[in-house]
Amino acid sequence: MNIGLTPPDSQVRCGTCRRLLFCAEPDAIAAAIRIKCPRCKALNILRPDRAPTIERPARQTERRDACPPRRPPDP
Ligand SMILES: [Zn+2]
Fold this sequence. Notes:
By secondary structure, the protein is mainly β. It has a domain at 29-57. The protein is 0% helix and 24% strand. The protein is built from no helices and 5 strands. It has strands at 11-13, 20-23, 33-36, 43-46, 53-55. A hairpin with a 6-residue loop joins β4 and β5. The termini are far apart. Zinc ion binds at residues 14, 16-17, 19, 37, 39-40, 42. Residues 14, 16-17, 19, 37, 39-40, 42 line the site of zinc ion.
């Protein structure tokens, strides 16, 4: 029994880990959609006329402990 709502090409998958994000008809996307993958946390940006692009989340790798080394005051 085929309902016909979800043909295989309408499955939108994460561009990084291929997890199924959602199903939609090809014309259902009228503008950009941003959806974060619940598995790998990659932000998938879907546009109707483009292949999904991936923006990796800005991980908190910028540590703020990069303080300049203390120098003794100049005499
Ligand atoms: Zn993913």
